[in-house]
Every structure is written in C-alpha cells, then in structure tokens.
Amino acid sequence: xxxxxxxxxxxxxxxxxxxxxxxxxxxxxxxxxxxxxxxxxxxxxxxxxxxxxxxxxxxxxxxxxxxxxxxxxxxxxxxxxxxxxxxxxxxxxxxxxxxxxxxxxxxxxxxxxxxxxxxxxxxxxxxxxxxxxxxxxxxxxxxxxxxxxxxxxxxxxxxxxxxxxxxxxxxxxxxxxxxxxxxxxxxxxxxxxxxxxxxxxxxxxxxxxxxxxxxxxxxxxxxxxxxxxxxxxxxxxxxxxxxxxxxxxxxxxxxxxxxxxxxxxxxxxxxxxxxxxxxxxxxxxxxxxxxxxxxxxxxxxxxxxxxxxxxxxxxxxxxxxxxxxxxxxxxxxxxxxxxxxxxxxxxxxxxxxxxxxx
Length: 358
Description:
Elements: H1 15-29, H2 31-37, H3 42-64, H4 68-83, H5 91-103, H6 108-121, H7 129-150, H8 156-176, H9 178-183, H10 191-196, H11 201-206, H12 212-235, H13 244-263, H14 277-294, H15 312-318, H16 329-354
Helix pairs in contact: 1-2, 1-3, 1-5, 2-13, 3-4, 3-5, 3-6, 3-7, 4-6, 4-16, 6-7, 6-16, 7-8, 8-12, 8-13, 8-15, 12-13, 13-14
C-alpha cells in the first residue's frame, strides 16, 4: 500500500519550489542529463529531475564528503523516512517522496543505490569485471530501471535494455575518471585486468601515469560500454513515443564521453575528457532524427536479449508494483560495518574534545 505523505502543518511546503531546487541541482551538477532531459515530456521530465537530484545529492555526499560512513547512514535514514511517507524537510527528499507515491516505485531500486554507495564508503575494490558490473548495476542501472518506472514501463525487455544503458553510462564514467579516482585513492578497474597487464596497484595509486597498459585497460572498458550502448538502443522502441528522443539523447551524450576519452588516446589519467555544449546540442538533434528513422526499422533481435546477470534482480524488482520490503542481509552487513566505523569516528572526536592536545 502506498504511504500518504505527512508534512508537519507548520512547515510551508511548495511542490513547485521543490522542483525548482531539483532543476537547479541537476543543471549545475549533471549537465549531460540536464541537456538530455530537455527532450522528455514534462510529465516525465520533472519526476526524472527529482529522481536524479535525490540520487546525485546522495552520491556527492558519499563521494566528496569527509565522513562517508555518516553520509551513507544518513541516506539509509532518509530512504526509511521517504518510504514511511514522512520525508526529511528538504527539497530533494520531498520531491523524491512525491514520485515514490505517484509512481509506486519499488523500494528495491533506490535500495540498490544505497548498497552501491555503501560499497564506496567502505572502499570496496573489485577483482573482476563482473564485480565492476555489480557495482555499476547498483549506482547506475538502478537509476535506469527507476526511469522506466517513471515512464510507467514495466516490460521486462525494456527494463533489461534500460539497465544496459545504465551500465554503459557508468563504465563511461569510470573510464573518464581513472586518473581522478586514482589520485583520490580509488580504483574501479578490475584488479585481475591490472594483474594481467603487470600493473602494480599500489604503485599506480601512489603515482598514476598513462602508461600504454593503463590506456589499454581504459580502451577495454570502453569497448564493453560500446557493446552495452548497442544493446540498449533496442529498448528505446518500447518506451512511450514522446520519451524516446530524450532517452536516445542521453545515450548519445554519455556515449560521447567515451568518444572524447578515445580521442585523447585513452589517456584519462593526465587529462579528463570533456564534451562541449555544441556537441551536446548536436546529439539532441541527432536523437530527434534517429527516433524518426527507428520508427521505420524492424525491431532488432537484441531487444529480447536476457538481462546481464548483474542486473537481473533490478529487472525483477521493477517489473512489480511496490510491495512488502525487507532490507537484504548483504545491505545490513555493509551498513553494520559503516555503523561501527561511524561510532569509532564519533568516539575519537569526543576523546579529542575531552583531551585536547597541547
């Protein structure tokens, strides 16, 4: 059953003001999606901006904050409040709560995002490409599945292709950010790929350099993204006609990130790839043209390809309306690690206050 939101009467709440905040958050924080969203119909665009604002703010708090454990635990509490119908008194939370209620969003989808951000907070590294896909499923493919729900599409094939697009987008982001991540002590390349190329992980993190071996791994990651972008294109035909240009534009814009990395010789260590406003506008126009052309083409066989194993749980969850929910043991385990870390940091701070160093 859908919870009814319970806002305290003493707090003035304006849905329009909340949406204005979400639009601005995405305009400045996620320019690629903000540009692509211009081609979505308003009835989908505003909920999508609210969704992206909530997810982006949560991601930034974990990625950029000094206390990652606390940021994830705060997100856990915010999700609990949203699904109880009593969101925190903040624009993004109220806007997200409204779309949860209106679209009957399965909780397993934002819960997957919570798990992925928790993995970031504990500094998890991934031994295999499948592990990278597991991570990408949570922090990106889950958002693709939620976008389908906002378009009121719960067809399994459409969901699988939306998850393909989310995976591809995340792999593009990882490929673009290899140097930036390394300088922050993070690595999202599969560790077995590094070992196969004779790359010493700790040496690379200490002094990242765009060696031929590292650039080769970036290319390999982008090759996987290209494959997934190709599969995702088939799913656009299952979306409402008015939504197709916007989703196709998002696909082209994010795929363009990989193109920019390739033009830099797959060096994403010493230079960070960028795409300009003019390029994005070009991709918007191409999306409009391609959408019309696709209407005249037969549906490709890849439309019915099985979902990647790492996203099958998202497809199953999104295909059903919201029902009963129990936080998984895997999520509870990583949250328990973060609670212990948060308690230790709090204790250390209190001890520092009680016994200041002279």
